[in-house]
Design brief:
The protein is of the alpha/beta class. It has a single domain, classed as YqgF/RNase H-like domain (Nucleotidyltransferase, domain 5, 2-Layer Sandwich), CATH 3.30.420.140. It has four helices and five strands. A five-stranded mixed β-sheet has the order 3-2-1-4-5, with helices on both faces. A hairpin with a 6-residue loop joins strand 2 and strand 3.
Amino acid sequence: MPAMSRAKRLLAIDYGRRRIGLATCDALGIAVQAYGFIARESDEQAATVIAAVAKKEDSAGIVAGLPLHASGEAGDNVRYVRRFLRELRQRCPLPVYEVDERHSSSEAEQVLIKEGKWPAKPGEVDAKAAAIILRRYLNGQ
């Protein structure tokens, strides 16, 4: 994982074929919060929206979760995410960092249950999973 100054805001994404969860952090990388989600119509549309959010939030980089298998191996879903990331890199000049997202959605569901927000509204699990992905990335720095 490339070293990065912690004094920069980041935008995290939890890619899904229907929805993409978003999360941000403060400039010190301490406070992480779910930002919301976007409905994915196409990779081109989603990449354009994410690039606009990154600009609006003054992000220094984007953290993307990779859905590895439990064994750590990359499967078909990782190919879909990386294909999307190629599109995102064409539309957004920021560095994109990849992080293992294994079990982030189930962790997000557990957090929402503990917060009394279950059943979750559409997109809440995606946004919370993006926040978990971002926290993992920051903890690895």
